[in-house]
Amino acid sequence: SSAASDVYKRQPSSCGANATGGGQHADLKDHRTMVELDIDDATQTGQIVLRPNASGTWRFNLYLLYTLMIVSGTVSIGFLFAGAWMILPFSIIEMGALAGCMFYCNRQCNRQEVITVSDDLVSIEQGVRQPNKTITYQRLWAKYLVSPPPHPWGVSRIAIRSHNQESELGGFLSQADKHQLVKALKRVTPR
User: What is the pTM of this model?
Assistant: First the structure.
């Protein structure tokens, strides 16, 4: 599955970054597709790459963090000079927690699933920046299941099942992206 590993290498390093570069504000726009398709309709084989929606780039998140740190630091130092020194440690803890949350969110934005459908197998690779979990199904026995949302504002669940083994596909996708995934799966499902 070197083709799937190549997909991980092509992935932008920042959450939602424009892979084409160019322009001063290129990284402020998200040109990344949530469901990327490379399907041969004649053989009903191909590759589907799923990525979560990235609302902001890592650079934008850093600018936001630095701005909040400057404001919080300025207020904390003001209180320090006024004699309320206990504000400063809590401000540092707060900014550390915020930085940790931003890092975690960025890491989650770099998750992806690569579904490779060959003549005999369906392979699903999941990971961040590199595949760290691979699940393989025999294509002949694999079935795709679409469960309706549990409530009106929820999202449906898409899974692949074979021999009592089931894996959810694109759990991080929105409802519109899941509809796009279902259409792609229909293109690789033998008729």
Answer: 0.71
Q: Which pair of tokens denotes residue 160?
A: 């692949």
Instruction: Please report, in tens digits, the pLDDT of each residue of the chain (191 residues total).
Output: 555 556 555 554 334 333 333 333 333 334 467 888 898 888 989 999 999 887 778 889 899 999 999 999 999 999 999 999 999 999 999 999 999 999 998 888 888 999 999 999 999 999 987 889 999 999 889 899 999 988 888 889 999 999 889 999 998 998 889 999 999 999 988 76
Report the distance separating Cα 10 and Cα 114, nearest Å.
12
The angle formed by the CA atoms of residues 46, 51 and 55, to the nearest 5 degrees, is 150
Return the ∠ at Cα 117 (arms to 116 and 119), rounded to 5°.
Answer: 140
The answer to whether 47 and 184 have CB atoms below 8 angstroms apart is: no
What are 68-74's contacts with CB under 8 Å, separation 24+?
68/95, 68/98, 69/95
Contact 15, 62 (CB under 8 A): no
The tokens for 133 are 């979990």
Return the bridge partners of 127, or none. 112, 131
